[in-house]
Design goal:
The protein is an alpha+beta fold and about 525 residues long. It contains 19 helices and 20 strands.
């Protein structure tokens, strides 16, 4: 084994912070949390302490293997029917609803109770070895000293969603704190290379380093947050913050061609990943050829099957009876397989009219074989920064279904579904792949394809990550620019609608580590172009 381990994530500054934690004697948990804090500084619309996520911790020496879920929760003042009269449509990928006035999408009423900081602190307190203040320190320094706006951050800020969502730029313009931090005098995002110093956030993080996460949930910070929420008629209040709890579960376990994989449970996306692999296990994927029309057609039908089941059945298990055992059962997959072999296509219907890829991921393994796979996010960020605090809140109310009586309907205390699926793949009971991704509803689809590339097509980790991807979240198949037209044209002849993504690298941003005995290899996904894997 290498001296310290490996860490892989989309932001180089954050990867370096995690690597330094390993070099100082920290374990995978210390590295992951240090990385996560810095991610919230240098990529502030992707993630942060007021976000949500899911974390898988594997510590064989301690006999620990757990999923810590920290999804955003609906504030107590919300009601299932409160926005039903405002419905205009549903996003194309089925992961959000468009309402009049965009009240669920941006601003104070879009904020769910955040879980990220609570999870960072609890996971570190239970499993970390470095002092908490040392884990937070790199983010404090980064916020005070500043970060250079990267091309990826800038282009994301300037991006335009094809769905009728509030543009990212309008989110940046929403609050005075955001405008002051991220926009120039003309109201445009600060240019690539511009140094942004966030002294307010440095002070907030210093308070968190000294007082722990409870200052955010029940202490001085919570009082500042609650006063701001009350002043702007937010749904979130002090009672929501004080009542927030993470949820720890055993991993959801699946198998694929002699491999065992562990992933998260609902409301996370691991259930989709296992269902898709169960279906594909019944086919000789390798014989079809990589990204041939036949292979894309098959995998797309598996994707649509898992998406349709997610839409119908998957939500917060505290509120919805999610049929986890049935959806992950091999016999259920065989029934889906029979339908595919018979030529029947899955239909995924939407209301007329995407979850933002405002998410990030961390994969870490340390010298002791301890592993963390963590995906965390702001979802569709709210645009709200409380004066003097320096961080943006999530905007996760936008994903809840404003129609009562459905798996994803609004209910106080309810967690949102997300596609995040931090996963570990085992071979002969030894970890061989640590994997996860940002990318909205495309997350499970991107993770699936990298797993197929490694197991079915024998690719190196770099080859597996850079191979062209596709996705099927509706009746159309989205293909990236590097999938040739002569391939997608054959699918069109068979009656599939094709959406050609102009990007060469898209469909999630997978950041894995592959373990071959004592050899570790990792790859930063070019879809999130600043990503890197660092061996230390």
């Amino acid at each position: 084994m290498v001296a310290h381990g490996m860490i892989c994530a989309p932001q180089p500054e954050a990867v370096e912070a995690g690597a330094l934690a390993l070099m100082k004697g920290g374990n995978a948990v210390d590295a992951a949390i240090a990385c996560a804090f810095v991610q919230g500084v240098v990529d502030p619309l992707m993630c942060g302490i007021a976000g949500f996520g899911s974390c898988q911790v594997y510590m064989p020496g301690r006999g620990a293997h757990a999923i810590v879920d920290f999804h955003g929760r609906v504030p107590r003042r919300a009601r299932p029917e409160m926005w039903q009269h405002l419905i205009e449509g549903e996003t194309r990928d089925g992961f959000g609803f468009v309402l009049k006035g965009r009240v669920n999408d941006v601003g104070y009423r879009s904020i769910t109770t955040p879980g990220s900081l609570k999870a960072y602190h609890e996971v570190h307190r239970r499993f970390g070895v470095l002092p908490w203040c040392d884990v937070v320190a790199p983010a404090i320094a980064q916020a005070a000293d500043g970060f250079a706006v990267s091309p990826d951050v800038y282009h994301y800020w300037m991006s335009v969603d094809p769905d009728p969502r509030v543009p990212i730029l309008d989110r940046l313009r929403h609050s005075a704190g955001s405008r002051a931090l991220y926009l120039d005098a003309e109201g445009n995002p600060k240019r690539i290379g511009t140094i942004i110093r966030n002294t307010d956030y440095a002070r907030t993080l210093t308070q968190i380093a000294e007082e722990g996460a409870e200052t955010f949930y029940t202490g001085a910070l919570s009082r500042t947050i609650a006063a701001d929420m009350a002043a702007h008629d937010a749904l979130l209040d002090a009672q929501d913050l004080a009542a927030y709890r993470t949820v720890e579960t055993e991993p959801l376990v699946g198998t694929y061609r002699g491999h065992r994989l562990t992933t998260n449970r609902p409301p996370g996306g691991g259930i989709q990943l296992i269902e898709m692999l169960n279906i594909l296990e019944n086919f000789d994927v390798t014989a079809l050829g990589h990204n041939t029309p036949a292979m894309i057609k098959l995998v797309a039908e598996a994707m649509k099957s898992a998406t349709a089941d997610k839409d119908a059945h998957v939500g917060d298990p505290a509120f919805v009876d999610v049929p986890v055992a049935r959806l992950t059962d091999k016999a259920y997959a065989r029934a889906r397989t029979d339908e595919i072999r018979a030529g029947r296509r899955v239909r995924v219907t939407r209301l007329p009219s995407s979850e933002s890829p405002g998410t990030t991921h961390i994969s870490v393994i340390d010298k002791g074989g301890n592993i963390v796979s963590m995906t965390h996010s702001l979802g569709m960020m709210s645009g709200v920064i409380t004066d003097g605090l320096g961080f943006m809140y999530n905007g996760c109310m936008g994903v809840f279904d404003p129609r009562p009586g459905r798996a994803g309907s609004i209910a106080p205390g309810k967690a949102r579904f997300s596609s995040i699926c931090p996963t570990i793949v085992f071979k002969d009971d030894k970890p061989m792949l640590v994997i996860g991704a940002p990318g909205g509803t495309h997350i499970a689809m991107g993770v699936l394809q990298v797993i197929l590339n490694v197991i079915d097509f024998g690719m190196s980790i770099t080859e597996a990550v850079i191979a062209p991807r596709f996705s099927a979240l509706s009746d159309a198949i989205e293909v990236t620019a590097r999938i040739p037209r002569f391939v997608s044209d054959q699918l069109a002849v068979e009656g599939y609608a094709i959406d050609r993504n102009p990007l060469s690298f898209a469909i999630a941003g997978v950041h894995p580590i592959k373990i071959d005995g004592d050899r570790l290899t990792g790859a930063g996904d070019p879809a999130y172009g600043g990503g890197m894997a660092l061996l230390v």
